[in-house]
Amino acid sequence: MAMVLATLSRLARVRVTLGYTAALVAVATTLLVLGPQVREQVLRQASTNLRNLGDGRVGTLIGSAFVNEAGPIYVWLPGLVALLALAELLWRSRRLVVAFAIGHVGATLLVAAGLAAALGVGLLSMSIVDVTDVGMSYGAVGVLGTLTAAIPRRRRAAWTGWWLAVAIGSAVLSGGEFTNVGHAVALILGMLVGTRFDRPAHWTMTRYGLLAVAVAFGYMIMAYTPVAIASTAGLGAVAAVLADRIANRRRVRRTLAVPASPHPAG
């Protein structure tokens, strides 16, 4: 009995992760059973494209996070679970929800505003208004961004430089493809939100393991083609080294700027 209670207590600490995972599995399974025609209809109705948002279907801002078209769910779901579980263990359930919501909704609205502006000045064709835009990736990348606040301070600059280079590099290499731009926006939003979560993080071997899986998952979300993987890996490494050196120099300057404490008279 004590073992059961201990297990339930541990699971309760990641209840949002488990609940969201169950919802994703349920939706994916239902759409698979109902067939491709129903699935396509649901994707159109749940999409946060300009057509739906322009028609006032604000419910898509929530519903789109539960519908995915990013390949078989069993391929990417373990990585998502690792990322969300780590964030929930570090930040607690309420903050995980806040981080995911800001990443998902915030990036969606900002990208939609950018698309509408580009459409208005003739940079895009009208076909963009009906492009399907669903999935968990903006929210997940937003959560990834908040982890910046949990990284030890001596490694935080390198971490930040790496991810910004990967996200922005992927957006540029894709020619400004709006999903990649959305990932960059979500990452920055997550990093900003994470500044409100800043506190000493308790790291264990289990959490480091989750972090490793989460990093790989986040990277594959943003760099999912061979060219992007090779290019952003190089950009990320250079940015990480430069950011770390700049941070080290600033630390040295702050240390030198602090006046030495006078010795008491003997």
Describe the model.
The protein has helices at 2-12, 15-34, 36-46, 50-54, 60-63, 73-91, 93-120, 137-146, 153-173, 178-194, 205-222, 226-257. The chain has one domain. The longest helix has 32 residues, at 226-257. It is mainly alpha-helical and 266 residues long. The radius of gyration is 21 Å and the shape is globular.
Radius of gyration: 21 Å
Query: How many domains is the backbone divided into?
Result: 1
Main pleated sheet:
none
Report mean pLDDT, rounded to a whole number.
90
Quaternary status: single chain
Q: Can you count the helices?
A: 12
Q: What structural class is derived from the secondary structure elements?
A: mainly alpha
Give me the strand/helix succession. HHHHHHHHHHHH
Strand proportion: under 5%
The tally of strands reads 0
Measure the end-to-end span. Answer: 66 Å
The global form is globular
Uncertain regions spanning at least 5 consecutive residues: none
Helix residue percentage: over 70%
Chart the SSEs and their pairings:
Layout (H helix, E strand, L loop, with lengths): L1 H11 L2 H20 L1 H11 L3 H5 L5 H4 L9 H19 L1 H28 L16 H10 L6 H21 L4 H17 L10 H18 L3 H32 L9
Helix pairs in contact: 2-6, 6-7, 6-8, 6-11, 7-8, 7-10, 8-10, 8-11, 9-10, 9-12
